[in-house]
Design goal:
The complex is a heterodimer. Chain A is of the alpha/beta class. Helix content of chain A is 42%, strand content 21%. The chains are: A alpha/beta, B alpha+beta. Chain A: GO terms for molecular function: 4 iron, 4 sulfur cluster binding; coproporphyrinogen oxidase activity; metal ion binding.
Chain lengths: 378, 602
Amino acid sequence: MKEIGLYIHIPFCKSKCYYCDFTSFSNQENIVEKYIENLVKELSIYKEIIKEDRIKTIFIGGGTPSYIDEKHIEQILKFIRANFNIETLEEVTIEINPGTLDIKKAKVYKNAGINRISMGVQTLNDTHLKNIGRIHTQKEFYDSYDILRKAGFTNINVDFIFGLPDETIEDVEENLKAIESLKPEHVSYYGLILEKDTPLYRLNKNNKLNLPSESQEREMYHLIKKRLKNMGYRHYEISNFALKEKECKHNILYWTIEPYIGVGLSSHSYLNNRRFWNRDNFKDYFIDLNKGILPIEGGEDTNRDMEIAEFSIMSLRLIEGIDKKRFKERFKKDIKYYFKQIINKHLKDGLIVEDDNFIKLTSKGLDLSNLVEIDFLL
Amino acid sequence: MNKNNKRNIRNFSIIAHIDHGKSTLADRLIEKTGMLTSRQMHSQVLDNMDLERERGITIKLKAVRLIYKAKDGEEYILNLIDTPGHVDFTYEVSRSLAACEGAILIVDATQGIEAQTLANVYLALDQDLEILPVINKIDLPSARPEEVKAEVEDIIGIDCEEAPLISAKDGTNIESVLEEIVSKVPAPQMDVDAPLKALIFDSIYDTYKGVICYIRVFEGTIKPGMEIKLMATGKTFEVVEVGVITGKHVVLDKLEAGDVGFLTASIKNVKEATVGDTITEKSNPTKEALPGYKEVIPMVYSGIYPAEGEDFNSVREALEKLQVNDAALIFEPETSVALGFGFRCGFLGLLHMEIIQERLDREFNLNIITTAPSVIYKVMKNNGEMLEIQNPSNLPPQTEIDYMEEPIVKASIMTPTDYVGTIMELCQNKRGSFINMEYLEETRVILHYELPLNEVIYDFFDALKSKTRGYASFDYELKGYVRSDLVKLDLLINAESVDAFSLIVHRDKAYERGKSITQKLVDVIPRHQFAVPIQAAVGSKIIARETIRALRKDVLAKCYGGDISRKRKLLEKQKEGKKKMRQIGSVEVPQEAFLTVLKYDE
């Protein structure tokens, strides 16, 4: 019997943001119903596979889960409660976008057992929002935030992105001020990634974007870390900050290489030393489920070396770093047995520090984490 | 083969400038004589290395026997001897031509005479060959056959009255080319009873048979079992097989005076049976070897290093295998501080060098790093000692050097008059001395220059091509050595001198080259977590400097459940790339860096 995370993907949006490379579609409202039916079918197949296991966390992500009718969310959660072992279920998160929420919807969520909200705002600057294809305003964000509080949610995350086109350090400062006044329990603050095949990527390739320089971007990151810490947030992962005990338990499963199941279009799962991922188009997804089989597109078995590498690499994303005791428990050998040389090298270069229990990235190491992580591949 | 048919032999080559249609015409002749049906025929059968076909040049020459029934009702044996079409292989071309009595000169009806056309014509004239001009590509709308004919008559001085106007591409008038060969190329002399005298005009290594020599018998007869002597190397062998090539190798009981064919004799390495050597019978030798034998001397040297140190032995094995088939390639082990163990290799020229590099990569799947090519410099030391240096690292300290000499080539550049100014400027820039300019016609000239070879091997070809949009053509031959004010240019990465980047350059060029190389290295060496200075120095004096800025950010901001596999793969790829880098001090230098240094900058 093990504890696992459950991810549910809702691949619908009103419109697609310019930086987004997630599997999500606009103008597909007519198949929402069918999709949910199939998603429930997929869950019912898993019922047998994980009947021994307890679901510890649920994360309903997207897309924009709040864009579809709340009855579907209710239906999914009801099915889970009825069919899976939820004795130790601690955290149920749903992602929402400003402008897609009213008090009725929020209350339905609450009653369905959702206890954590993750709201994407990215920035509070209306011009910048437009630049990146967001279809809501600063005001709509505040309105949604009020609704959530009114509905009684006490664990809210807000997603921000820094390093946006035309953004200055002062703009970031403005966002930080808003965070200070709202005090959400959790803040994710990501550096903008220009993913391939996104409109922003193409604009940048054609030199149409005025992006902050590398050093300005880092200055923003350093400012964010400093200011959030002063507001009482604990920096616990490269891009994540939380008030006391409000860290996202679901995401921590990912970062500590614990098992999880992903259902829905293009979701990833990690179960019994195998990583696998779902079909990324509706057609194939429906066909497979119609046949009563899992809609899996591909996968790979992870071996011990991969697990060691992934555990080390993902643990380094955590600010506390690699838990040496946990490493030894899990892999039966001291971490130094595998990585003595490279640990010494990076200690010398000032990218990591080590104490009795942890090996973690320094501030410089956080900026250059890939350089360190690469050496933990076996 | 009936002995009486001997007078019906015609031995000939095809000469042309690159891309004027030599291989295509060869294909048509083969097709027309029915040796292969066109369906069986892979396009351009004479170029049998992939690389050759891709580059549209013929590197290795071969001979095929065609049977042609002429309009006079007689059957003729036409031996077509193919020649390489590049300046690096001039000697091989001359030996192939020496095996013939005649040569077809192809001239492109749209382009007229080019530098290599002339160079090849002169080689053919040196061998007293009957030259048959043929005007090709008359199917193209821009063809101007009459003008080109006049040009050939004017410049080369051969009568073009009867020159066939053909299209090798669509097969127009191929028959008339065959008739010209029959009627104009002289039949070979045929003293079959004299002592054996045969010319090796090519040799290739075959895994099963050993070296296969392609030969032209001038006097006497050669047959299996005969003990032969190679007059230049002095080696003796027993003939195993003789025969002719008609698309495949056909074994015969003998080859006689006038014949072109092949022989095998359990020869292990092409070095033992080199191109130009004369074969005779050991017990009944001919008095004199055929004229024109030359030992091939590499003109260009560069270091070839395995990208991964453990491949050293594989590189050695590959070079040995290539050498078995390439008498012009030489190599010996050397050591570089930056690159570890590798080989110093000598080549006929730049193209030869590139071919070897590509073959190592493609045929042997080896990942190699090549250092900047160098010529052989003569160094006169204060103590009177004379050194020949082809590796900049071996240059003695400046204080021990009295003076140095560098090789100079005679270059002819054929160009439309529009580009004369540009080319003169380029040659000036490459330290060339202008000799003269000849008008070929109103709009085309040949420029004669003397150029230092080390400038030619750097980026002259590329520069010429790009500055004249491909309109100029170029040919050169070694003239000799002249005294020159040369210095060693060193490159320092993060304050460490990197021997693999060192170059010998003219003092006046040192600053410009140093600046260009440092600028290029800044672009190809990835940023590190610290700033990396790149400097160029002559002696202890820094003459150029650039800095690779420190890397401030290399982090993935987002990494959740769906990203883990991708993230790991991304890092794996990054690691793979890192593996291919050379660690120089604490700086990782990608292989391209060693190449970039050689590239022409616009």
